[in-house]
Amino acid sequence: MSGVLRASGSTLGRCMCIITGASKGFGRALAHLVLNYLKTGSVLLLVEELLQNLKDMQEITIFCTVADLSTKEGVEDTVAMARQQSLKEIDHVLLINNAASLGDISPFENFTELERVNSYLAFNVSSVLALTAGMLQAFPPRAGLQWSVVNCSSMFAVQALPSWVLYCTAKAARDMMFRVLAVENPNVKVLSYAPGPMDTQMQEDIRRLTGIQYHLHPCRDSAAKLMRLLLDNDFVTACHVDFFDL
């Protein structure tokens, strides 16, 4: 599965789309794909590094920002940039929380340093909560405004793996975080999507650190499956969907 999804004429509407971790891998693939489904007047905000070679689409405003989402300043700057577009006539806010890190792969008893643990959780959990909350304040859910949040999850949100305590903990916490959001605010549709093992730098790190070699698939294939879920919009809010389920 690759390329533009031509089977449907549906779009994401006149959308404010925010993608974190957009400089490489899965986030980069999503950034390129989503452009095909944004209506005139949409805004695409890509968080982290400038993306080269995005197609020139004058009817869509593209912003790129470098922000350290593990810091208060990085989260606030990203929300502020999005808030500047809040007066535009949009009918859909789509926030894709993709930014994440692998963290140390080490036995449980080695994590005695609180600062080490907090640093990892600040980027992988706390910043996701603060960024999503900030975007909800910038674009309050209301009648006529579709609100969608994607949490890029993992099979390890629901399956424990020895020596992966940081990664598993963060992914499980994020899944529950967005289940709470879905219960608290029915006007926000939430999806936790596990994109599967992809050909990314993270997988290279896993192979180097553990010797584990997964069968990898291209980022664009997983991005296409996620895009189909968003376009069809018939998933149950707060559900956890895996690449291999589709």
Features:
246 residues, Rossmann fold, seven-stranded parallel sheet, globular
> Roughly what is the average pLDDT, rounded to an integer?
92
Q: What is the molecular shape? A: globular
* CATH topology annotation: Rossmann fold
Strand order of the largest sheet: 3-2-1-4-5-6-7
CATH 4th-level superfamily: NAD(P)-binding Rossmann-like Domain
Number of strands: 7
| CATH architectural arrangement | 3-Layer(aba) Sandwich
In the predicted model, the low-confidence regions spanning at least 5 consecutive residues are none
Can you write the helix and strand succession as a string?
EHEEHEHEHEHHE
The helical percent reads 25-40%
Indicate the proportion of strand residues: 15-25%
How many helices? The count is: 6
What report would you give on this structure?
The chain is of the alpha/beta class. It has one domain: NAD(P)-binding Rossmann-like Domain (Rossmann fold, 3-Layer(aba) Sandwich), CATH 3.40.50. Helix content is 37%, strand content 16%. The chain has 6 helices and 7 strands. The chain has helices at 25-34, 72-83, 114-138, 165-184, 201-210, 219-232, and strands at residues 15-20, 43-47, 61-65, 92-97, 146-152, 188-194, 239-242. Strands 3-2-1-4-5-6-7 form a 7-stranded parallel sheet, with helices on both faces. The longest helix has 25 residues, at 114-138. The protein is globular, with a radius of gyration of 17 Å. The chain starts with 14 loop residues before the first strand and ends with a strand. The model has no long low-confidence stretch (mean pLDDT 92). It is found in: Cytoplasm. One of its GO terms (molecular function) is sepiapterin reductase (NADP+) activity. Pfam families: adh_short (PF00106). InterPro entries: Biopterin_syn/organic_redct, NAD(P)-bd_dom_sf, SDR_fam. Keywords: Cytoplasm, NADP, Oxidoreductase.
